[in-house]
Specification:
Layout lengths: L39 H18 L6 E6 L1 H13 L5 E5 L2 H13 L5 E5 L16 E5 L1 E2 L4 E2 L14 E4 L16 E5 L10 E6 L1 H9 L13 E2 L2 E2 L14 H17 L1 H21 L4 E3 L11 E6 L2 H4 L3 H18 L15 E4 L6 H23 L1
Parallel strand pairs: 2-3, 2-4, 4-7, 7-8
Antiparallel strand pairs: 1-9, 5-6, 8-9, 10-11, 12-13, 13-14
Helix pairs in contact: 1-5, 5-6, 6-9, 8-9
């Protein structure tokens, strides 16, 4: 039967993610609208995002934190175009975003000394193959596959190369080993449910040294430049953004960070995400038509949780029909207002993707599960008719 209780908040999108619980536009009433981002007030607001992020995430004090254009993509492109090429590069990719970085390194930067380590959706590569003498490029959490890096033990403390980590769907939900990461990027709309526009870029002292001692062989657009006359442009890391940010988005980012502080900081954020994953795992364990795309619990994401249909009726379908099943389910759920935007990523195997980050309440997930069961049963009956 169709459930009669819907999630209080049916937004389970993997980006932009759900707003924090009890979010309201009223929380943004003090935004510095109509003011220059270069005014004292504007720069103070931007610096507040940096300072609160550092405190919540326990980022070392000598790691630079900057706000840069174009979300996580802009931040990571900025890092690759500015830092890569000095050494050989090892790139690890197991889903679409990582594959995008491979393409940029290979086709745009045209780095010849490139080693590629891949894995299929639901798996991760063999990180033990990383060479500490080379730069390493990787995502910490595969947003489109639901697979994450288990830990940073494979990264040598005495490495010569830099580690460039796209952490956009991991930061604020996973305990990142900052001293092993030389470049870390994320975006406001992932994890904390902020509005889009700008990304965050964190640089270790070793990354700063590379910037100041190495000049890439390719032209750098102005929007990517972090040095001038061989010196770091320190203003970028003090709230003086390269281009004009939305001060409304800035205020929204501050609101999310304040909420994180209020509930207990990083420890509480991780606990909420892990509790959400545990709730999904309990439901999967007692449900015969669904399973995780990621088989190994050690590398299973607690944010972008990817699910696959495993019912006998599903296995009998053609590939085209299989691909359509999740879409049919999503259409039913959206019509009922029970869940929005949970179809799997277009390049991933057919399935569902449910965001379980800290801004999602476990109670909403628990209310979602009966609706998923109903949708799967409804589609199965339609196919059998």
């Amino acid at each position: 039967m169709k459930p009669n209780v819907r999630p209080r908040d049916p937004r389970f999108s993997s980006g932009p993610c759900a707003k924090r619980p009890n979010w309201s536009l009223d929380n943004l009433k003090n935004a510095s609208l109509g003011r220059s981002h270069r005014s004292a007030e504007g720069k103070a607001r931007l610096a507040e995002v940096i300072d609160r992020s550092r405190a919540i995430l326990h980022i070392p004090k000598d790691w630079r934190i900057g706000i840069v254009p174009a979300s996580d993509t802009g931040a990571f492109e900025m890092a690759m175009w500015s830092l890569l090429g000095a050494r050989g590069v090892d790139v690890f990719a197991w889903e679409s975003f990582g594959a995008g970085w491979v393409q940029d390194i290979e086709k745009q930067l045209r780095i010849k000394d490139l080693r590629k380590f891949g894995a299929g959706y639901g798996e991760v590569p063999d990180f033990s193959k990383a060479d500490p003498a080379r730069d390493a490029v990787f995502t910490w959490n595969g947003t489109t596959s639901g697979a994450r890096v288990a830990d940073g033990d494979w990264i040598r403390d005495d490495r010569e190369g830099l580690t460039l980590c796209d952490a956009t769907s991991a930061v604020f939900a996973m305990d990142l080993p900052w001293t092993k990461l030389d470049v870390v990027t994320w975006s406001w709309q992932k994890m904390m449910g902020g509005e889009a526009a700008h990304g965050m870029l964190v640089l270790s002292p070793r990354a700063v040294e590379r910037l100041q001692t190495y000049t890439p062989p390719w032209p750098l657009p102005k929007i990517f430049r972090m040095t001038s006359a061989g010196k770091l442009i320190e203003g970028i890391f003090k709230g003086e953004t390269i281009n004009t940010p939305s001060m409304l988005c800035v205020e929204d980012a501050i609101d999310g960070l304040k909420w994180a502080e209020k509930i207990g900081g990083l420890k509480a954020l991780i606990a909420r995400s892990e509790a959400n994953l545990a709730a999904i795992a309990d439901w999967v364990a007692r449900t015969d038509w669904v399973d995780f795309l990621v088989a190994d619990p050690k590398v299973r994401s607690c944010t972008s949780v990817c699910l696959k249909v495993v019912a006998p009726w599903f296995e009998k379908l053609s590939d085209d029909a299989k691909a359509n099943v999740p879409k049919q389910m999503v259409k039913l759920l959206e019509k009922e207002g029970a869940a929005f935007d949970i179809d799997g990523y277009r390049d991933a195997p057919p399935g569902l993707r449910v965001w379980a980050g800290a801004t999602v309440d476990k109670a909403d997930l628990e209310a979602l599960f009966p609706w998923l069961d109903w949708a799967a049963e409804t589609v199965a009956k339609e196919l059998a008719a």
